[in-house]
Design a protein that fits this description.
The longest helix is centred in the N-terminal third of the chain and has 18 residues. The strands form two sheets. This protein has a three-stranded antiparallel sheet with strand order 1-2-3, with no helix packed on it. The protein has a two-stranded antiparallel sheet with strand order 4-5. Helices cover 19% and strands 39% of the residues. A hairpin with a 2-residue loop joins strand 4 and strand 5. The chain contains one helix and five strands. The protein has one domain. The termini are far apart.
């Protein structure tokens, strides 16, 4: 049995998320997050596929810590909002 109950509504979920995030950061030694630095993102290659382009990117989460990423971008303009994923949230543009 769980030592805590499931949140009953959206507000309770938001409170619980904050508690879990604080606990996780404490457990992995990141109570204080490192200072943000410029990502210095670069496109290494672009592959033109059927109806989208695949871009191979590199960015730096911290100086000296490169991260490889792929960006899938539609070739033709898209109407309305589109989801974009980020490490800490999903945004709609």
């Amino acid at each position: 049995m769980l030592g805590w109950g499931l949140p009953k509504d959206a507000q309770a979920w938001r409170r619980r998320r904050t508690q879990v995030e604080i606990g996780l950061r404490k457990a992995i030694g990141l109570e204080a997050l490192p200072e943000r630095t410029p990502l210095n993102a670069r496109t290494l290659a672009t592959h033109h596929l059927a109806d989208y382009a695949l871009e191979n990117l590199i960015l730096y989460t911290r100086p000296g810590f490169p991260v490889a990423a792929n960006l899938y971008r539609p070739k033709s303009p898209v109407e309305g909002r589109r989801p974009a994923l980020f490490p800490d949230r999903t945004l709609y543009y």
